[in-house]
Every structure is written in C-alpha cells, then in structure tokens.
Amino acid sequence: MVLNASPVELPALPAVEQEWQRRVRADRQLLFDIQHAVGGPFHVVYPEQFAANLRSFQKTLAGYGVRGQVYYGKKANKAGCWLPAIADLDGAVDVASEPELVHALAHGIRGRDIGVTGAAKTDGLLRLAARHDCVVAIDALDELERVAWIARNAGPVRILLRTLPPNAPHSRFGLSATDLDTAIAMCARLRSRVELIGFSFHLDGYAVAPRAELAYELIRLCAKTKAQGLPITTLSIGGGFACRYLGDDDWNAFLAHRRDDWFHAGKRPEKFYPYAQGPTGADMLAAILATEFEGHALGNHLRDNDIQLYIEPGRALLIDAGFTVFPVLGYKQNFDYGITTVHGLSMSVSEQWKGSEFLPDPILVPRNPDPAAEPIATCVGGASCMEYDMLTWRKVPLPQRPAPGDLLLYPNTAGYQMDKNESEFHQLRLPPKVVITAEEGRLRWRLDK
Questions:
Q1: I need a surface site. Which of 35, 58, 133, 248 has the fewest CB within 10 A?
Q2: What pLDDT, on a 0 to 100 scale, did the predictor assign at position 3?
C-alpha cells in the first residue's frame, strides 16, 4: 500500500488490544464527552484489567505452591485507582519516597504490605517505614546504620539486603560481596533493632534464566544465613517481567526491514523496547519457577528451604490497563507525508524522552468519519515550540486526514508512559487520568484521585 505520494510502503504496527479497550474506543461519544469535560489530552485507566493482571501473578505463585507476595512497582504509574484493587486482593506496593508511601497508606494499603526500595533513602522515609512496619530494602552499609539508629525509637525494622548482581558490576545499586558479608554480621549484632528477613536483587532486561540462576544462588545464601540464627524467610527477585504490545509478525517485519525514511527527518532511534516478546507477565514468572537446578524446579527449592518469594512488577501489572488520548489541533503536509499536531506534549509519552520511540500505531478517532477517504501517512508533533517535541517520529498510516477536533488515541500507555516524564511546559497542565468502570451494562467515568 503506497500512502500519499511517497514511494515508501509504510509498515502498520497495530497494538494488541483487550476487549475493554475496543469497547471504550468504539464508544466515540464517550471519548468526545470526556474530552469536552477535561478540555485537553487525557489518560484513560481501567482498574479491572490491573486487578486481572495482579490475580494472574498471585495464581501462578499459588499454582507452584510458593508462598509470596506481589508488590506493585508504584513508580510505573501514579494513579490512585490501582491501590484499592491491590488492597482488595491482599497485594502489596513498592515505594521509594515519602509521598508514595503516604499515598499507598491513604488508599488502604497496610504498612506491612508496603516495601521501600530505591537508592539511599531519607531519614524521614526510613522513619515512616519503621513506624508502619514496612519492609525496607537496604542498599548500603551507611543506610543500615541509619535504619538501626532510627529503630532505637521507632521499633524494630524488617529489612532485605539488596545484592549487587554479579553480571552488573558497574551498577550503582546493591551491596558488593564484601559489603554483604559485613551487613550480615551487622544484622547479627543489631538483631534487637533490625530483623533481616532475606535478600533482594534487580536485573535489567527481561530474560528468564538470569533471574532463576541468581535466585537459586541466593536461596543457598538464605540457608547459610539462617544457620547463623537470623530470621531469614524471604527472597525478592524484583521486576522486569516482559510485556507484549504488538503481534510477532508485525514486530519481526518491522525489525527486519526498518529504514531511516520511515521516520520524520530520518531520525531513527537506535534501540526500542522489545514490543513483542515471550514469555510475558505471569507466564514469565511460571518459567522462572519451573527452571531446574540439580534436578528440581526453583519453586521446589523455595518450598524446601521455607523461603517465600517477593516480586515487584510495574509495567507487567499495568499492561493493557490504559491508553492516552490527544485532541488534534491541526494537520499540514510539507512533504510527501503529513505532520499532525496534537494538544499535548511528547513528555506524556515517555519513550521519546529516553531517545527512543513508542511504536504501537496511534488510532485516529475522527469526529466526522469519512468511509470514502484515502489513507494518509503522518508523523505526530506536540503543541510546544520545540523542534524535538515529537510524539511519533515514525510515519504512521491513518485511515483519513486528521482534522481539528479529532482525537488521536495512543494504545496501552499505562505502563511507564503516562506520567514518568510529564511536565507543565508552556504552563500546560498535565493530562488528567480518567477512570473507566463498566456498571449496569454501560461505561462510566470519573477523574482519578
């Protein structure tokens, strides 16, 4: 299919969508009513899908007979609507700041179901965590000393020691092998103030084998430390559970044939998130638990050593749980393809601000559909005065020419896209989050709190 006057046959990268997304998108009046009410771009979030994703992880742990807890990595999306769903399902939340911790408590998450991770933490955060019986992941020896000092008045603090992965020696996170030994010895001396319940790690990438292998190594460390009389019960393997946005055929064809002239001004990012991969989500957790060591699955080793497993998915709990809508401000054609400008900024689609691109095709919701229209190709720019404010550098196919007042929908943006890098540049307010619920046979909406 040749689009416009361009000789380039542009690839389509249609997003994988759930039924709720198609239903909301089909209700054009609903979307235009929301846009009329908020007066600009907005994010749509659907807590029922989030709850389904959480249940899938919980069922996988139960299916392997492994005790454990699923901690939602809160940094992945700031919406409050996820938190009551977590509370109702006895899930947990991973936070890294005082506002995140307070927000979780305010939405019904018990302190004992909150994990505090991240780099060096403020005394205020540590004190709040101690008072509410949160689990704190210790990242450095001086942080362990501060926790012990705070615990004199706040009471004993449950901690995990975060380990530096052997295959990531240059990471700024985690305790080196030498510091880890020192920290364990400190915990033995300070056991009246700190309760060492286990160890944690975080790995980059989305591979099964490295997570299973490091988990197995730390199970042995758990057994060794428990033998010293410390109350070891827990191992956290962090997040990084793979997600799928595109079909395999579309993704593989794009990777195999991508060209610079598929992108506005020839600006092709050098790397992309792996938008089609597997296993994903809870299936990836199952693959980790099924990995065998010495003839037994990792899940068996956890059970045999009486170790519970903590996981900290962020994106994998938000996959398919939201999308973003931008009103169209205008369209022009300076080249053999068009430039669509939307009411909003590329700071609301975070891959662009990491030097990459959010690749699933945006979906045009025209105010006046034209069945006879010819398809066009366009890139998509934001409303700022900055040349680099582009939501989509790639020339994407749309069924008709966008017009002012149309809506451009970016699918599946809940995980890390909606608010990671948002800014009130040009004094434009941040897009609000709109919570969609299905009640009494119809769709209803409200603003997130």
A1: 248
A2: 42
Please state the φ and ψ torsions of residue 337, each to the nearest 5 degrees: -145, 165
Which two three-digit tokens encode residue 299?
A: 């899940």
The domain of 400 spans 19-46+321-447
In whole angstroms, give the CA distance from residue 430 to residue 419. 9
Question: Which residues, 6+ apart, have CB-to-CB distance to 26 below 8 Å?
Answer: none
The answer for residues whose C-beta is within 8 angstroms of residue 310's C-beta and 6 or more apart is 68, 69, 71, 92, 115, 160, 200, 234, 235, 236, 237
- Quick one: which H or E segment has residue 299? helix 298-304
- Sign of the alpha-carbon torsion through 127, 133, 135, 141: positive
Asked if 209 and 335 sit in the same domain, the reply is: no
Question: Which residues, in sequence order, are bridge partners of residue 325?
Answer: 42, 409
pLDDT at residue 329, rounded to an integer: 97
Q: Are strands 338-342 and 322-332 parallel, antiparallel or unpaired?
A: antiparallel
Task: Tell me the average pLDDT across 373-388.
Answer: 91
Are 306 and 375 in a shared domain?
no
Cα separation values, 364 from 9, 10, 18, 81, 146, Å: 20, 17, 18, 27, 53
Q: Is residue 272 part of a domain?
A: no
Q: Rounded CA gap, 251 and 16, in Å?
A: 11
One domain, residues 73 and 28: no
Place of tokens 């995990």: 160
Q: Which pLDDT band holds residue 187 (cuts at 50, 70, 90)? A: very high
256 inside domain: no
Q: What is the pLDDT of residues 229-271, one digit of tens each?
A: 999 999 999 999 999 999 999 999 999 999 999 999 988 888 8
Return the DSSP state at 354.
G
Phi and psi at 219, nearest 5°, equal -60, -40
Identify whether the C-beta of residue 235 lies closer than 8 Å to the C-beta of residue 218.
yes
> Does one domain contain both 105 and 169?
yes
What is the 3 state secondary structure string of 130-183? HHCCCEEEECCHHHHHHHHHHHHHHCCEEEEEEECCCCCCCCCCCECHHHHHHH
User: What percent of the chain clears pLDDT 70, i.e. is strictly above it?
Assistant: 97
Please indicate, yes or no, if residue 258 is contained in any of the structural domains: no
Residue-wise pLDDT tens digits, 149-177: 999 999 999 999 999 998 888 888 999 99
φ/ψ (deg, to 5) at 414: -65, -35
Residue 333 lies in a domain: yes
| The domain boundary residue, chosen from 292, 318, 344 | 318
Asked if 305 and 385 sit in the same domain, the reply is no
Read off the CATH number of the domain in which 299 is found.
Answer: 3.20.20.10
